[in-house]
Structure formats: C-alpha cells, structure tokens
C-alpha cells in the first residue's frame, strides 16, 4: 500500500464517519430524503462560490454552498406551509430546479469554471491525494483530508455538546420544547451540519454517495439496535467498513471508488435487511408465522372456552366454521394437544385445567394490556413480546 | 315508541339475520385486535358498536367488509359470503381516511357510490347522476353539488360520505364514526336519515363514541373490547354492568330515561 | 461535462418564425421537439397520479434505480440500442420500486429512508458498473453516460415512435379505467368494498409511472427525471378542482415545457436540454403557485387583506350600532371622539362607512342612517349562521 492509497482510505473513512453522524439523526427524524435534496441543490451554491473564490476547497465556498443547502430546507418548508401541494412534492420540486440552475450556470461559464457536473455527482476520490495543502512550504497532507477532518471535528464536538438535546428533540419534540430546547434551533442546526458535511464530502465522493453514506449505515444500524448510542456507533462502523472495503473493490475492478463504496453499503444493507436478528426480513417472516400459529391456537382455545355446545367443539368444526384450511387446523390441534391444553373425546374437544387457566390469563392480558400478569408467558409466546 | 321499534325489529319477529359473524379473529401485523367474535345482527336494527379506543370497532367493520383479511372466522350477509352479497352493503368510512384536497366535487364523490353496481369500465350516465343528485338532496347538500370537497365544512364532508352510501341503495349500512367532528345540525340531520333508513327496513351499523346518545339514537348495541362483551337491544343490555365490563373499573354513564 | 452530439448550434439572432420553420424542416430539431413534447405530456399525465398518491419522491427513486439496469443490459447484450437498454432500466426500476415497498412493509424503516436507500444504493451500483464498462478494452461504451443527465440530441425517430406508442397505450388505459383510477386514488378502502381489485389498479398505475420514467431517461436523465413527473402536475393542480382537467392541464404544461425547453437550449450554445426543460417546468409551478385565482398565494393574500378590512368596517359599524341602540332615535348624532377609544377605528373606515351610506357626518358629529342600522343588526344574525 502506498501513501496515496492510505490517504484515500483515510479520507473515505473520515467522510463516512462525518456522514454517519448527521445521517443517523436524519433517518430517525424521517428526513432522509432531505439529504438527497440538499446534496443536489448545493450545486448552484458551489458554482457561485467558485466564481468568488476560485478554489474548491476554500472554507468560504463551503459555507456558501452549505447556505444553498439551508435555503433548500427553508424553501421546502415554505412550500409545504402554503398547503398548495403535498409535503413530499415540495422536496421533489425544489431540488431539481436548483440543480438545473447549477448545471446551466456551469454550462454558460464552461470556459471559466473547471467544474464538472459528473464530478459533483460522483466525485473522484482517486484524485484527492494530488491536491496538497502546503503551509509555509511544508506539505501537510491532501487538502480534502484537512477539510473533511475539520468538519468531522466540528460534528463530533457538536454531537458531544448537544447529545442530550438532539436525543430528546428527535424522540419527543414536544418534551424538548417544554424543557426549553428549541426544536427549531436543533432542527436548523442539524440541517446546517448536514449541508456542510455534504459540501465538504462531495468533491471527494460526490453528491449521491453522500446520500448513501448518510442513509445506508444509519438504516442498517437501525435494523440492529434501538439504542441511540449503539446506533451511532454501528452506523460509523458500517460506514468505515464500506469505505475501506469499497476502496479495494474499486481497486480490484478498476471502477469508480464512490460507486464501489456505495455498492458495499448496498451489500451490507442487503445482508442486514435479510438477516438482522429481530428486525430482519427472515426474522420478521419467521415471527409472523409463529404468531399466526399462536394466534390461531389462542383463538381456538378461546373458542372452546366461549362455547359449551358440543356442536361448536367438534373437531370438524374447526375446519368448517373457523374457516381454516386442513393443514392449519391440524397444526393448531397438534400444538394444543402437545401442550396439554385440550382433550379430545369422541371427536369432541374440551379444555383441560391447564388450557382453561392459560386461556383466562391470556384474555385478561389482551383486554387489560397489563404486562405483569403474563411475564411467564413471554418465554413461550412471541405474541406477548414487544 | 322505543319498545315498539325494538319489537318490530327484533330477530324473533322478522326472523332474518342480516349479518352473521362467526369466530372472527383479526390481527394487524399479526397482533390480534379482535378475538373470536361471534355476532348476529338482526335485520332492521339501528345498531351502535361501542367500546374504548383500540377496542377494534373500526377493525370489526373493516373485517366484515373484507378490507382486512381475518386470521380466522367467517362472515355472512343474509346467509351468503360477502363477495356474493356486495350489492346489499354500503360503507361510510371515517372522514379522516381520505385526502379532502383531492381535486373533485361533492357530486363526483357521491357518484362514486354508483361505481359498484356499474362494475368495471362502464361509465356512469344520466341514471346514476340522477340517483346521486337525489342522495345529495336527502342529506341537504344539493346546493353544494359543484363545490370542491376541500371547501366543505367537516359536517358537510360527512354528509357527502353519507350520500355516497345512500346512492348504493343497499340493505345494510356500515358507518365508521359518522358523528366524529360534525356540528350539531349535521348530527341531527344524520341521525334522522339513519332513523329513516331503519323505518324503510334497512339495517344500520354504526361505530359510535358518544355513550350519552346511545339510548336516544339506537335500538341495538354491541359492546366490544377486543372480545365481544355483549350484544342486544339497548333497553335490555345498555347498563352499568356491561359498560364496566367494556370500559374497565366502575364505568358509569348517566342513562337518560 | 461531456456534451457530445449537441443540437446543431443555431444563431442567437434567429427569430421565432425562422425557428418554427426550422422545427418543421430540420430532422434533428423536429425529432427532439416532438420527443420532448410527448415525453412532457405523458409524464405530466402520470405525474398527476403520483402526486395525488403522495408518491412524489418515488419517481426520483425509480429513475435512479434504473441506472444499474441500463449498465447490466449493456454488459449482457453489448448493444447500445436504446430499446434494449430501456428494458434493462425498466426491470431494475421495477425491482427498486418493489424493494422499497418491501422495506416499508416488513421493517420499521420509514418510507423516506427506504426511498433514499434504494435511490442512492442503486445509483452507486450503477456508477460502479458504468465505470467498470468504460475501462473494458472492447467496449464501444461511449454514450451510456447520457442517461445521467440525458441528451435530447441523441433522440432518433424510432425513439419518438416508441414514446408515442407508449403514450397512446397509456392514454387508452387511462380512458378505459378512468372511473376505477379515480375511485382508487381518492378512497382505496371504499373501492375495495365495492368489489374492485385494488391491487390490480395499483400495479397498473405504478407500472405506467415506471415506464414513463424509463422513457424519459435518455432525454432528461436520471437526476432530473423526477421533476418532469412532479412539476407539471403540481402546477396543474393549482388551476382546477377536477381530476380530468388536472391530468389534461399537466399534460399540456409538460408538453410546453418540453417544446420551450428544446427551443431555448437549441438557440443557445452549451445548454443541455434536460435542465432547461426542468427550469421551464419550475417556472410554470412558480407562476401557478402565485397567480392561480382560486388557490394562488397572491389572490389569497388579497382576499386576506380584503377580509380584514371588511372585518374592521363591520366592527366599527357594530360599535356605532351599540351606541345608537341606546337612543330612541337611531339617527341621533354622536361625537366622533367616542370612536377614538375604539380599536380598529381610523378616519379611513369612517369615510368608507360614509361612502356606503351607512353613516352621515355633520362636522364633528356622526349619526347612523336607517340603512346602516339595519346592516349592523343583520351582522349579528349572519355571524350566528356562519358559526353554526
């Protein structure tokens, strides 16, 4: 590994961390698509900033572009407030318009601006190590490393300083307001950080990858934990892992680094989406199947308890009357028998003592919704968990 | 008066069961919200379904109408499955379930009530339009027929929904909280229409929140809280005992009469 | 930005008449103008449905999700034929759409997260494939990146024919199932109780939206495609309260954006068509938001101010009414000074009341006229009716 390779991986990792932190909050606040809007609409800000500064890594340019991001957010909210269109339509109207203005500005000034729209969208991480920051004649590393490093430091600083406020306002805006934290201030603070991070990251990884790095690690972490700190930690870890493995994938395929990192994020998300222990697709489907059987069992037991008539308790009734298919009816019957909940005499089903008690207890729980009564049932039944 | 109606519409005298629900269990995302409901609704009653929030009142209606698929149990309308009896049934959803900024007029919404009998592809014609106008007239909304639906008050929107169900010219009407967020005038107008429907021998089933008005408005009531607690004539079963069973400890409502 | 195959540059001095002649005579310009017009019409039409279903951002996700399909179709067939690539785009767009639905249905992730995920992940994967293709030695890959930002200039007659056929098909289905679409969009549950198969209608609408987006990729590109879907529909919604008129208007706005956008980009150097079309469509939106008579912000503001003025006038009149009431003779004169204590009173409101003949002035004294008294008395009754 040469030093350029290390620098690229370092930059990619820092970008991943800087994106994962605001991304986690955006996902939790149901504002993921705002990051998509910001990432596109910073383009005109970048172009205008470039006219003024002539330097893609200048702090002024970053601030100007970030300002466009905030303008986007404000504009979207303003349009939503008019009630003229539905909320999501407002986002979809604002960012293509701003992006188009950016593209046209570049096209009209093609001779003065060496900005490439492809590069804005896709970034070119491979070139990042060639643009060095030289202070007093000494080479102290690639410029974008310093840019993203500074942004990351600010992000972490703000995160630590305002963690409590962010947490409360994310989960309970009303409570936050009553405690005296202005939800609006935190909201715009977060939007500002998201905009600055997007601008700082775009020229290394491109606007679309910024969106992926914000949303995908957070969404993956969301499927694994409900604890905010753990979610942040996991999102950062996933981001860094994808950044480094993505780099080597690109190296191996000789393809775009940004595209490869996104692809790794995609693979990671797909795996977690399928296999996450509680919220993954397979777990959910297994649980649903289990719950279906349990609900059927309880329905069946309840039915027996509710009806003393023999006609209603005949084995065949389960099929005809409750409207279940043969297989399902048999599964339920077997399950109840195995657990000593029922007795079958002459094809007439009746509850055992155990079955009767169990059913009463379950019904009590269902109606009162009081957890304490069924603590011991939770081990056996999915139904009563979470 | 009250007695007479109950007598006339009691299942013993008319003999017909309009809606029969057997062992119905319904779940949202595999979390059961209704357990093993058995229910017989006799023809010609004006019935309230009451119960606390989250008791599954709307769910019961939606399951009967096939909007939700039950986990177990069956529903029959006049002895046959719902699919075969659709034309006998009309539905008034909760007002909040649709987007009232949708670009359409009051008359247009009411016309939708005719779509079911038209079936696929066939367009509504003069006959359907006439029926829709009559229904608008009945709910006192004829002057507003061309009005964009977002420019109607909550009560007016509810009347439009009612008119849409009236157009269906059904035998059984299911209504999900028709009195929710309506003004006093509309409430009176709606209950008068419901009483007219009952007089015409129709069966009306209403998810209802306001316990105070149950004895005044309805002749039949079902108490529901995940399980069915009780069902029957209001004068027989609308008492503190059933209310307590449904709503929890010592629930009391001052019953007029 | 690479911009090969730009529309032949027309001089900036060209006037409108010359331009229109050129549209009819010049093959390239005619093809592009027709193509963008048809595209604008079909996306505007279907966009109305997307907007009303609150699926505005789905278009953005679908267009991005189509990118890997284009690359894979090229990798498999090695053909740059736009129809082949569109089939790939269609398949991957549909996969993206249904995956989004799967994520929303089976996990606790919210819809916007699902949209953002699929959008960025599919796009990133598409970029990986595109850069991979570009490095292949044998590839005649040039031109695949036109799908990023679109290049209307690469449209040929067969592309326009394809658009026309699909638009025709879409129009036919729309007319055929109009009643069902409307019912489904407004009240899905109700449609179900009437016996309509809502899943079928849902899949039909979604498929056509995906198809329209894929059709537009070559012209407008992945990034800006969603605006083609939303902007005409959002503008049209402001002018009408009827679904059918909205759909027709959206189609007209879309087509105009296409034609105007093409004209402007053709008459300027260095302007790609896609962004210009989007800007034009956005101008339609802004104009509609402000100037629509019934919903627009301008008239809303005017009505608001007028209402407030009316209210002030009424308040002053009511105040005078209360004073006049205490006297047997309603026209008994009172001093203007009393009014000074009343908030909302200005010389202007007084003058207005005089103009309306509700009040007569005599030096520093005022008195209610018969007409003014009656109007004031009626105000109370009207208020009671309004409140009800």
TrEMBL record, chain A:
Bilayer topology term: Multi-pass membrane protein
Subcellular location, record wording: Cell membrane
Pfam families: ABC-3
GO biological process terms, semicolon-separated: response to zinc ion; transmembrane transport
A single Gene Ontology CC term: ATP-binding cassette (ABC) transporter complex
Listed Gene3D superfamilies: ABC transporter involved in vitamin B12 uptake, BtuC
UniProt keyword annotation of Iron-sulfur present: no
Spans through the membrane: 6-28, 37-54, 60-77, 89-107, 145-163, 175-198, 204-224, 231-250, 256-276
Keywords: Cell membrane, Membrane, Transmembrane, Transmembrane helix, Transport
Main location as per UniProt: membrane
Protein name listed in UniProt: Manganese ABC transporter, inner membrane permease protein SitD
UniProt source species: Xanthomarina gelatinilytica
TrEMBL record, chain B:
Molecular function (Gene Ontology), one example: ATP binding
Keyword DNA damage (UniProt): no
SMART domains linked: AAA
Taxonomic classification: Bacteria, Pseudomonadati, Bacteroidota, Flavobacteriia, Flavobacteriales
UniProt-listed InterPro entries: AAA+_ATPase (IPR003593), ABC_transporter-like_ATP-bd (IPR003439), ABC_transporter-like_CS (IPR017871), Metal_Ion_Import_ABC (IPR050153), P-loop_NTPase (IPR027417)
PROSITE patterns in the record: ABC_TRANSPORTER_1 (PS00211), ABC_TRANSPORTER_2 (PS50893)
Name this protein carries in UniProt: Manganese ABC transporter, ATP-binding protein SitB
A matching Pfam family: ABC_tran
All copies of domain ABC transporter, residue ranges: 19-251
Keyword Protease applies: no
Keywords noted in UniProt: ATP-binding, Nucleotide-binding, Transport
Recorded family membership: Belongs to the ABC transporter superfamily.
